[in-house]
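Figure S4 source data
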Amino acid sequence: MVKSAKNYSVPAIEKAITILNGISKNGKMNINEIHSELNIPKTTVFVILNTLERHSLIEKQDDGKYVLGHGVLYWGMNYYQQSDIKQVTRPHLEKLVAGTPFTAHLAILVNYQAVYIDKFEGNGFVRFATIAGQALPLHLSGVGKALASGMTDEEITQSFSKMPGVDETKRGQLADKLIEDVHFIREHGYSIEDEQMEEGIRCIGAPIFGENGHVIASISITALSKDLPAIKFHAIGEQVKETALRVSGEMGYQRR
């Protein structure tokens, strides 16, 4: 008679995972919300949050709520470094910027931010100080706007509700502008970041789609404004869009 394998479980770890999943799903949560929504005793919640915070898996914000920390991003980065998307995209990035002064980036969406997971530099003299793991606001980056094109208007508005230090009126204005940018991306297939992040630097991005048609990543080229004049936005945008669509095809996406 063959004995069935025992299903071992550590209750404290199970609760910690439940809390991390809850924060990930809701964006941010406080102790009372975790207690009531996840049905975990407050004393247990407090101990687990303290432990997770010490290991940078969560961070406490000024309003007392917790969000995912950069320790989770570190795990995610290690995963994505081994995943198909980076391996598939790399040769396309190389081809996109070959013989140009542009720098190409690959990014994914993490906690309502665009996070670089790969970078390839062209032949320009200027080297941009961007690194894998760097997080950028959606509304201030070419990759971020492209990623936002896969979000609903409600999700975009919600993403700004988590922005600390910005009043409600300003958050609403930023959300409206990003929604406007997203409509442009859906119509034209590429995003434009025109010196919004940093004066003298421009980016053009495009979304990468998965097999189910959802946006799973984005790419962009970054350049000095003198190397990327506005008159070239459309031509370069088409190149970035077509590159992203070729990557999407290799990821199982079928053009409509």
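Figure S5 source data
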Amino acid sequence: MATDSARVNTSPHVSDEIRKTTCYMCACRCGINVHLRKDENGKPKVRYIEGNRDHPINKGVLCAKGSAGIMQHYSPARLKAPMKRVGERGEGKFEEISWDEALELATSWLKPVREKDPKKLAFFTGRDQSQSLTGWWAQNFGTPNFAAHGGFCSVNMAAGGIYTFGGAFWEFGAPDWGKSELFMIFGVAEDHDSNPIKLGLSKLKARGKKIIGVNPVRTGYNAIADEWVGITPGTDGLFVLSIVHELLKAGRIDIDYLIRYTNAPWLVIDDPKAKDHGLFLRDKDGNAQVIDRKTGKIAAYNSKDVKPDLKGEIDLKNGRKAVPSFTLLAQKYLDDRYAPENVAEETGVPASQTRRIAAEIAHAAFEKEVVIDQPWTDMKGEKHEKMIGRPVAFHAMRGISAHSNGFQTCRSIHLLQILIGSIDSPGGFRFKPPYPRPVSAQPAPHGGNIPNTPLKGPQLGFMRGPEGLLLEEDGVTPQRIDKAYSWDAPMSSHGLMHMVIANAHARDPYGIDVLFMYMANMSWNSSMNSSGVMKMLTNKDENGEYIIPKLIYSDAYSSEMVAFADLILPDTTYLERHDAISALDRPISEPEALCDAIRWPVIEPDREVRGFQSVLLDLGARLGLPAMTNEDGTPKFKDYADYIQNHERKPGVGPLLGWRGKDGSKTGRGEPNPNQIDAYIKNGGFSETHVPAEALYFKHANAAWQNWAVEMGLQDAPVENVFQLYLEPMRKFQLCAEGKAEPQPPETHRQRILNCFDPLPDWYPPFEGASINLADFPYHALTQRPAAMYHSWGSQNAWLRQIHGHNPMYIPGEICDEVGLKDGDWAYIISHHGKIKVPVKRMNAVNGKTMWTWNAIGKRKGAWALSAKAPETEKGFLLNHIINELLPPKGDGHRWSNSDPITGQAAWFDLRVRVEKAPAEDEVSQPQMDAQNNPVGSPDQTVEYGKEWTK
């Protein structure tokens, strides 16, 4: 390892050495300085962690999670060595084995699957930040059954944005904090992207700009907002479309922006009896047609000098007609259905508030436009002297995504941004490199199942239409175990991780031989119906064999899921590993700069653990996967660090952008550099390449951006990105459901596709509420993630536990008064699926129909090396136990997954409940599971830190 002066501090009073790497205490991926000091035995120990002020993401800011990374690294819950199960599943009884035995055993389980039926391996990862590797590995294995956690986290966010305009909130874009005049934030918890958001909000506050928080709960960002909209859960889309209604009525939209950058002028065929009704009118070359304002005739939208019209009607042959999609859009949203007074009862937002916010948006966008004196040239060759922006910015996350109507809600917010012309304009939402990437620049999903043969492409991608569904020859049966890209969830860009275990247990559409999981706590907080999932993992068939025969699991810590594994491959902590935070995967760029980063072993493991990515490459070589094996059968990559530096996804393009080329002189494109990781280490663990000034805005239509993106290896050629307000693939699915096109869905699915696949952003009530008697379950129940925690990783951390040691159910005052509850009481929270017992805390800063709690605080006894009476196990709880992975029966014998019907996003936040006061004699949360055996030693221990430095 290099020991350059940038990492060495000569002052013994502070630390012996400072090593710079990337945090992993949430998905923010901030730069950190890890201070090391040798103990009395001469071994380096982590003394403290601070933010790296030179890092482009956090600029030195570090949250409680990041600072507490010390206790994540020294956690008593760390796994120590490979283990194989010796008791029954779920008991937590294991024996330690060597790595050779563990890898030989895993290979013996995986090899026959690949040789006979590769789809019988289901490989799913949790909060894995190396999905470009794990997905590539699964593709080379040949199984279609791969996905990461996005399907139960935020696929609606990603898919809704990319299908609409080629980007999305959070990792793919950010508000223009320094220029925005008005900012709206929807459903964002404080754990995701927290440091950049805090920095951004502070800029808005310093400039005196208004922040509007839209969230049923007023905590965190919403607590510091200038205005809080206490929305009823699942109605954000209706609220946004009501704002759209007001803007259209007032004519406060950016017509020029719509004509230049969107498909608003594209002609839609209006012939209700025809097979192409609702599709775009195209010429023989496939170009969408528009009405030319100069001639009144049809022309290709991309014809030189054409001036498209947003209104009008064109007569076609045989009595057919076509109208611009904007005409359909205006007709839809000008309907009184969306008038503020007509949606107020559903949304919980007074009509006067909706109207005022719409007026404020219009005022900020059109009366306070931002002008930057920067010439630029668009993709049509037209030169612009200035960059003119509509300074209204939006940000949203899981709170709107995790509903069964989340995809359409995400699209509704993007529709609003586009109508006012604020996407990638000064003061609005800005793309982060390598985005924008419209669907045309994204891969399509790939299926298949040929023994000993890699898939022809990645498992995950973006559906163009029904012809791409991953179905068996009968046109109905899904190819994938999670039913992604089938009629159940046709546009499921991230898969349905929450359905894998349930479907495999039901052998619907088939059973599997091996379930291989990484960092996915599916027996506890990462699944719906946690109690049921535990049974599914342990149930046996009529022959006494486990229904899910073999389960390989990798994690760094003794989580609840570890107890259900047959084979455990222990991972390192994030301070002991190599990682590539890659533009091929989940980028960390900012709008002004293309950035990526690494992690590297700033401290060596003191246990028999290995980084999972290196283990995966080892397994790939043992299995003879061609991409991981040389011609003589030897491994192609020594470990993950070797892969990071030498793997090429295509010639000249690899996991890292910086210091490419044999001498490290190239950026973006270039040959592998054997010293690339060392170059990153010397630079503080990251690379940063600034976007040229003329490419900073309007990237979707900016020739300078396109040329630079090609130069950097982000794309191979210029990519057209016309914003899709009217989403034609959705209409294609409707045509299939109408019986006018092939393939056709089964009868059970027709009406759902007709109802939900509107090509214009739409709103429909969340499914759970529509499936039950609301008089029995009148309230909403939600989880939010606290700023000090990131899922279950944080809530086993000795320092962070002092901030949140247990979680009450926060219940609105009016409900408390009705039920007779006060602070400290206990209550039963009851859904159609089950009942939990929880401690209560009164709260008035919350939507009056909504109760909520912190997520992933509750723990199972015996897990995470917590003490037997830990507050997380006795007063902590999960809502997961009362959320079913399936919707209530409809009486037709078919059970739908509790998901968005378009993308398969888990609908965590559709939960409806009632509340009853519970007796106080037993102040322990319910349900309580039997304690697991703890494979890492006695949980009854005192965690002390730094004692050796107190001399």
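The longest strand covers residues 835-843. The mean pLDDT is 94.
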